[in-house]
Design brief:
- The chain has about 180 residues and is of the alpha+beta class.
- The protein contains three helices and seven strands; from the N terminus they run E-E-E-E-E-E-H-E-H-H.
- It has a seven-stranded antiparallel sheet.
- The N and C termini lie far apart (about 45 Å).
């Protein structure tokens, strides 16, 4: 429980960013539910895994390079007076018979769900509400599982976004103009 007596709840959703696979008793009667997260998105970060790709250069040239393939993303919604919800989204994978059928159709293809509607490709976990300090602590607690580039930039980009949206962030130094 937090000081306000509120225990952050965790809910999973997919499809159009709203269908929920519940992890709490309230949703025990069904596996899927619709949820709408209110509030503006004040920060987002895409996490990726390294993937080697071959790029064509001209008629005969090729070069290999490493790119980060998006597999997870974090979104922060402002939901009230300095309160936030964190939405962590992971790419959905095909499973079971769907995966077997896909592998027959497209050998060596990616196993992630493919959809024209981007939100349908993600399975999300919603946590919060958090105040500014709790939000920063929650995200930084998740950083060890992220990649090295994410660990390098997330502390800065998160604080920058919060400050730019008018929130007071402990440890950010303001230098007044003259």
């Amino acid at each position: 429980m937090t000081e306000a007596g509120y225990r952050p709840e965790t809910v999973r959703f997919r499809g159009v960013g709203r269908i929920v696979e519940a992890e709490r008793e309230t949703f025990a009667d069904s596996a899927l539910h619709c949820v709408r997260v209110e509030g503006a998105v004040v920060w987002r970060h895409v996490l990726g895994t390294p993937k080697e790709v071959t790029r064509r250069e001209g008629r005969h040239g090729e070069r290999k390079e490493v790119v980060l393939e998006p597999v997870r993303r974090w979104l922060v919604h402002a939901v009230g007076d300095a309160a936030f919800r964190l939405v962590e989204q992971n790419l959905r994978d095909l499973t079971g018979l769907d995966l077997e059928a896909w592998r027959e159709q497209a050998r060596n293809a990616d196993v992630h769900v493919i959809a024209e509607e981007d939100a349908a490709r993600w399975l999300s976990t919603i946590t919060g509400p958090f105040d500014v300090a709790q939000l920063i602590a929650e995200i930084e607690q998740r950083l060890p599982a992220a990649g090295p580039h994410d660990r390098a930039v997330v502390p800065f980009t998160l604080r920058k976004a919060l400050v730019e949206h008018g929130y007071d962030v402990l440890g950010v130094v303001f230098l007044p103009s003259f």
